[in-house]
Amino acid sequence: MAGGDTGAPRSGGIAQGDAFSKREKANEDYTIRMREKEKLLELRKKVAEQQDHLKKLEDHIDELSKSSGGEQK
């Protein structure tokens, strides 16, 4: 095969391909970690919102219990 033909080895040989592959994999890994971090932050935000909502519901239930003549637990 002549240089430049489809399937021909790169002119830098294996060492250059390995460096490129390692760099490319590192970039992909970094991108994946960043996406996972963003997803985790979003999930934490949703959990906090749900906990706040539950707290409000509990407070409302307590208020209704007190106004109806006492707590029943």
UniProtKB/TrEMBL annotation:
Keyword Lipoprotein: no
Main location: mitochondrion
UniProt subcellular location: Mitochondrion
Region (Disordered) residue spans: 1-31, 54-73
InterPro entries: ATPase_inhibitor_mt
Keywords per UniProt: Mitochondrion
Any Pfam family hit: IATP
GO cellular component terms, A-Z: mitochondrion
The keyword Mitochondrion belongs to this UniProt entry's keyword annotation: yes
Transmembrane spans: none
Residue ranges, compositional bias (Basic and acidic residues): 20-31, 54-65
MF annotations from Gene Ontology: ATPase inhibitor activity
Entry similarity comment: Belongs to the ATPase inhibitor family.
Protein task: Inhibits the enzyme activity of ATPase.
Protein name as annotated: ATPase inhibitor, mitochondrial
Organism: Glarea lozoyensis (strain ATCC 74030 / MF5533)
